[in-house]
From TrEMBL:
Top enzyme category: hydrolase
Family from the record: Belongs to the low molecular weight phosphotyrosine protein phosphatase family.
Name of the featured protein: protein-tyrosine-phosphatase
Pfam families named in the record: LMWPc
Residue span, Phosphotyrosine protein phosphatase I domain: 2-147
Length: 153
């Protein structure tokens, strides 16, 4: 089983969106028995909370299920448990190193570093632009699927 964990600050906007979009892609290619997908926050602010209404609305627009999405905080044990720990921005990366007590590791990287447009995924909690988040996360998830297929073949 390949295990993928998306991480952002609150685990209510970007990383649950990434979890849902990536799971949808996994199901589209029939790999749901081989790839497990989850998401977590670097903060403790929204533990057990559902995603932000902007994330739920855009997933609904694209007919992507938001079933099972619930806030949780990243734990030290996640380092061993997951094969890909995918951050939304550079500040998440620093927080991940601190929480996992890990200076750096190839399994920890920023989502859009897999794309030509290597940058942070802007936080829609502040920008209000969930469409921009969807477009960037979707492109990142496509690149992540390609990376996993290449590495696991
Ligand atoms: P996220 O966005 O990291 O994409 O889930 C945020 C969600 C909540 C807060 C900040 C960012 N907050 O300040 O509660």
């Amino acid at each position: 089983m390949i295990k993928v964990l998306f991480v952002c600050l609150g685990n209510i906007c970007r990383s649950p969106m990434a979890e849902a979009i990536f799971r949808h892609k996994v199901e589209q290619v029939g790999l749901e028995k081989e790839i497990f997908v989850d998401s977590a926050a670097t903060s403790s602010w929204h533990i057990d909370a559902p995603p932000h209404k902007g994330t739920l609305a855009i997933l609904k627009d694209y007919r992507i299920s938001s079933k099972g999405l619930k806030g949780r905080q990243l734990q030290k044990e996640d380092f061993e448990a997951f094969d890909y720990i995918v951050a939304m921005d550079e500040s998440n990366i620093k927080d991940i190193y601190r929480i996992l007590d890990q200076p750096q590791h190839p399994k920890i990287f920023r989502l859009l570093d897999l794309t030509e447009d290597a940058k942070d995924v802007p936080d829609p909690y502040y920008t209000g632009n969930f469409q921009e988040t969807y477009d960037l996360v979707s492109a990142g998830c496509e690149a992540l699927m390609k990376k996993i297929k290449e590495e696991r073949r």
